[in-house]
């Protein structure tokens, strides 16, 4: 690839890209879990959860593309295999088909993990004055915080 001169030092670009790879892996793993739960949810809240999970996995599909393209913009190859995502992601795979309530809890923890990963990447991007990555990550963080809140609200009594 040709030289990249976008005002971010090479070491910083590589460190930001590595953080974005973790964000991409967490987001893609969460996408897969959400899509799986959309297909397999049952119970009294079936319709509501089926529709909610579809909205969430569609949003995640767009998000992973944005994150991957930012990694490429920084001059680094974006991971794109299950193996790479499994190695990079902090989100655990789910075995079997959990109950609807367990699905909500699992997805809540997944969105919270994406927020924590985002916070780590955000600090690196801000320290390197990479406003483009910081803005992207900040937007992702806000969306995952909101989604986690909505999922938690579904489990509250009252």
TrEMBL record:
Domain of life (superkingdom): Bacteria
All copies of domain Ferritin/DPS, residue ranges: 19-156
Matches recorded under PROSITE patterns: DPS_1 (PS00818), DPS_2 (PS00819)
GO MF annotation: an example: oxidoreductase activity, acting on metal ions
Family: Belongs to the Dps family.
Protein name: DNA starvation/stationary phase protection protein
């Amino acid at each position: 690839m040709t030289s990249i001169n976008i005002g971010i030092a090479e070491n910083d670009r590589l460190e930001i890209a590595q953080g974005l790879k973790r964000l991409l892996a967490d987001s893609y793993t969460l996408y897969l879990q959400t899509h799986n739960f959309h297909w397999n949810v049952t119970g009294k809240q079936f319709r509501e959860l089926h529709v909610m999970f579809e909205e969430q996995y569609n949003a995640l599909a767009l998000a992973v593309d944005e994150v991957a393209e930012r990694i490429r913009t920084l001059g680094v190859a974006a991971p794109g295999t299950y193996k790479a995502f499994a190695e990079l992601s902090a989100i655990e795979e789910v075995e079997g088909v959990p109950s609807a309530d367990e699905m909500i809890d699992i997805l809540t923890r997944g969105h919270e993990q994406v927020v924590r990963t985002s916070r780590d990447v955000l600090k690196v991007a801000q320290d390197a004055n990479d406003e483009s990555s910081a803005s992207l990550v900040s937007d992702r963080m806000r969306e995952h915080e909101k989604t986690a809140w909505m999922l938690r609200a579904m489990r509250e009594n009252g």
